[in-house]
Amino acid sequence: MTRKTFLKTGAAAPVTLSPQFAQQSRRPRNVLFLLSDQHRPSAMGCEGDPIARTPNLDALAARSVRFNAAYCANPVCTPSRASILTGLYTHNHQTWSNATPWPFRNKTVAHHLSRAGYFTALIGKMHFVDAQTHGFDYRLDFNDWYQQLGPKTQLYAEELSRANSGSGMPQIDSLWLDHGDPWIGTRTLDNRQSLVHVGRESRIAERDHFESFVSREAIRFLRNHGRENPFFLVASYLKPHDPFMPATRFARMFDPAKMSLPATWGKVNPATVPREIQERMKTSTATPELANPDQARQRIAMYHANVAQLDDSIGSVIAELKALGLDQDTAIIYSSDHGEMLGDHGLWQKFVFYEPSVGVPLMVHVPGMANAGARCASPVSQVQLVATILELCGVPVPAGLDGGSLLPHVHEPTVLRDQPVFAEFALRTKNAKAMLRRGDWKYCHYANDTPELYNLRADPDEMNNLAASATHAARRQAMEAELLAWHRPA
């Protein structure tokens, strides 16, 4: 079967749960997928971050297999989320950017599970760009939150200050195309220098935050429907994505004066990195204030406060799952759509292939699993999540996916598997680029810029670009050839 045929028909070939995994764990009836936005993989207590306050994610990690080298397929929201739900890399699902609607022909994991009798629910952000529901039976998003907020939506409009579809206002860009931003002239603006505020305590009451809404409605779904048909529930949060404006009790947990700047802050030699990286290091166009170290510390503090609020909200859903007696029959997956540089290399936000940006937290919990608390060091991709979820549920895995199931890693997490992991960004533009991770090595190819090559074992901070090194020329050429044979970014 060709990919073209698969994309049109969604045809599937049956597979069963791997025998080794079946010996260790019984098949769960349900799947709870907890998804965040812009959570860098190191920002958890269980990863040794001394600042992070993530007791609920830490507890989940202790009951899961945690992947130390998990990658998103594209370090920006919409293309990454399309890969998570379709199991396809960007050049195959063709959701090129945050402004591209997901093509209808690409079937998601929700389509496959619904056909198998699962009740599929998506509560929270997914950045679909248009009004398609992509196979989900039950759907709540930002616009439903605004209905609940009523007049208090004004507070959120002021925190964003500008139109920002990545933060859900508008949820769908085209809704404002005809008449423009309806909030212009009605907001009380702050003193930010550009699009995104450095970060501060939110003026929105904690119960009214989007995270509270997502958890509250996820709990309502579990109470109302958790004992009916098998369910696949995605609870998808905005935090720690901007606005870095956490509720009061979380903002006050972190003192900006006590935040440390990253070890790589101001240490990168611009001559060794691509021009794109040089330009990004000069200024954060979204938040120019971050050139000031004190403002950078403020942002770091509010980012961790956002993470803490996310963790608290996730904890309430996991607690309710247990209170309802569903925890012994529900697999739980936690991940994020991409990371956040948070000052590493002097960079902010995402969009690049350094580990804090393209890396993601990923943990998989299955009731009764024998390897609870184990770590897996094999590089893996989020394009593997569709096959993983379907195999967990005993549902046929379609032919044509770009990634196979992660369950062999869950069964034998200490076995290193040598598989290539790719990522892409800005395809079909002059800034197109792609990444290949193989073993300890990462190669980054730019369509019109300097390449990068890093040995992540010897240089985990990615400070020593070896692409121009004669000693490593053969490796660079081999990885470049492998990447371009897979797909040429342009």
Task: Please give a structural write-up.
By secondary structure, this protein is α/β, with parallel strands linked by helices. It folds into two domains: 3-419, 3-Layer(aba) Sandwich (Alkaline Phosphatase, subunit A), CATH 3.40.720; 426-490, Arylsulfatase, C-terminal domain, CATH 3.30.1120. The chain contains 16 helices and 16 strands. The chain has helices spanning 3-9, 19-24, 55-62, 77-86, 90-93, 109-115, 142-149, 153-160, 210-225, 248-251, 275-282, 293-323, 355-358, 385-393, 407-411, 473-486, and strands spanning 12-13, 30-37, 65-67, 70-71, 119-124, 138-140, 231-240, 330-336, 362-365, 375-376, 380-381, 397-398, 421-425, 433-438, 441-446, 452-455. The longest helix has 31 residues, at 293-323. It is globular.
CATH topology of the largest domain: Alkaline Phosphatase, subunit A
Structural class: alpha/beta
Q: How would you name the CATH homologous superfamily of the largest domain? A: Alkaline Phosphatase, subunit A
Number of domains: 2
Number of strands: 16
CATH class of the largest domain: Alpha Beta
Helical content, roughly?
A: 25-40%
The major pleated sheet works out as: 8 strands, mixed
Oligomer classification? single chain
Distance between the termini: 27 Å
| Shape call | globular
- Rg of Cα set: 21 Å
Total helices: the number is: 16
Assign the CATH architecture of the largest domain: 3-Layer(aba) Sandwich
Please state roughly what percent of the residues sit in beta strands, choosing from under 5%, 5-15%, 15-25%, 25-35%, 35-45% or over 45%. 5-15%
Mean pLDDT: 94
Main sheet strand line-up? 6-5-7-2-8-9-3-10
Could you name the ranges where pLDDT drops below 50 across 5 or more consecutive residues? 1-17, 20-24
